[in-house]
Amino acid sequence: MEDKINAFMEEVKGRNSHEPEFIQAVQEVAETVIPYISNHEIYNGKNILLRMVEPERLISFRVSWVDDDGEIHVNRGYRIQMNSAIGPYKGGLRFHPTVNASVLKFLAFEQVFKNSLTTLPMGGGKGGSDFDPKGKSDDEVMRFCHAFMTELCRHIGPNTDVPAGDIGVGAREIGFLFGMYKKIRNEFTGVLTGKGLSWGGSKIRPEATGYGTVYFAQSMLQSKKDDVKGKTVVISGSGNVAQYAAEKVIQLGGKVVTLSDSGGYIYDKEGIDEEKLAFVMEIKNKNRGRISDYLDKYTSAEFHKGKTPWEVPCAIALPCATQNELDGNDAKTLLKNGCICVAEGANMPSTPEAIHAFHEARILFAPGKASNAGGVATSGLEMSQNSLRISWTREEVDERLQKIMKDIHDSCIDYGMDEDGYCNYVKGANIAGFVKVADAMLAQGVI
Ligand SMILES: NC(=O)C1=CN([C@@H]2O[C@H](COP(=O)(O)OP(=O)(O)OC[C@H]3O[C@@H](n4cnc5c(N)ncnc54)[C@H](OP(=O)(O)O)[C@@H]3O)[C@@H](O)[C@H]2O)C=CC1
Ligand SMILES: O=C(O)CCC(=O)C(=O)O
């Protein structure tokens, strides 16, 4: 089996040699899915995984825009349309200086499996730009978004490809992007998700990724007759996913003690309650400030410059910032300090060495493609509401979100249970996600 996996990975590496993040994401899937394919006659000899690792379409384009001083800037825009076997391409847009083809291909590849796990009819895609919204005025962000959409609009549509937010793309950016799409195409359709509530957005979409991650952690703990209540929780990031993961933990009676950004982490040993979290939201969403500003109001908290929060003792860790933010040494520290559950809110935040350490220690570990699927699932619900031209209540959407997260958890158990009763959620998520897409690809022939 190892030979088969190695031969497959040699081919992937040969074709994508300068794309380390993409290779990392494919390796993790190959290790769990190739043994499954070998044991299931219908998938054998069809090169399905080789077809799945090649994007159906990779679009790259120039984005020129003018800053407030009249200077002209050029950024690179992308959309990776990875797989449309089970529905229109669906996945976020990331605006961050580290964006390149490798990062977006890993995200698009993960998205295919994640979207399949939601049980909703969505293919996988991802896009974005190396544009950095940090330090830009609202007008500059608007001009960039408008310029980006003048090109992207010809490649997307409500039945073709439906982008949404990701790092650096929130409600403000979605508004600007939607405005330009509507103007050029002269249509008001559900072409983007994460829209404002008064113009087609779904209730709970802003909360969904963070809430869903905690619902998933709760399901894992409940499978061990345990609970979030009373547990100390370490969270990284302080953006959309981290904020609402913190909110749900607080609502369920857990104690959140950290949040972070690329400058470092804050540690509040008293716990970040609802009032303190509201201040974090003001810092991040309104003032567009730094997490260290937290100490302006809550002076007894500590700020650890340039560090990640994994050194803080906790029972539950929720990495909610970015890829490869938690390495093998961090994992060992978490385990030494008594961590029993890790649920990824970010995409691929744990390195392969960290995942290996969690598995070896037999703790509960959920990969992002399962535990952070609540965001895109609620985007799927937004698409349904747009098509039906109706709007569900907060309670209705939250109920559906909870059911979807529970069903994803159960699918992981179905496909990921080891003989000794330990659930390998990575294996479970990869195989459950693969089966639905592979069956659709088989039915549709070699295209
Ligand atoms: N939004 C969504 O619905 C979904 C998001 N995700 C994933 O969740 C993660 C967070 O996304 P989201 O909250 O939306 O993004 P935001 O832009 O709202 O927040 C990102 C947070 O991560 C921090 N961060 C980003 N890059 C780094 C880095 N290199 N090192 C340290 N910290 C970093 C940011 O800090 P700083 O401000 O200093 O850059 C910020 O606190 C991403 O992995 C994303 O792909 C997954 C599913 C859905
Ligand atoms: O809601 C969406 O379509 C995007 C979600 C996303 O980008 C993700 O799940 O990583």
Automatic annotation (TrEMBL):
Glutamate/phenylalanine/leucine/valine/L-tryptophan dehydrogenase C-terminal domain mapped to chain residues: 202-445
Keyword Oxidoreductase carried by entry: yes
Key word Oxidoreductase present: yes
Keywords carried by this UniProt record: NAD, Oxidoreductase
Stored PROSITE patterns: GLFV_DEHYDROGENASE (PS00074)
CDD domains for this protein: NAD_bind_2_Glu_DH (cd05313)
Subunit note: Homohexamer.
Listed PANTHER family: NADP-SPECIFIC GLUTAMATE DEHYDROGENASE 1-RELATED
Family statement: Belongs to the Glu/Leu/Phe/Val dehydrogenases family.
Protein name stated in the entry: Glutamate dehydrogenase
Organism: Arenibacter algicola
The organism's taxonomic lineage, starting at the top: Bacteria, Pseudomonadati, Bacteroidota, Flavobacteriia, Flavobacteriales
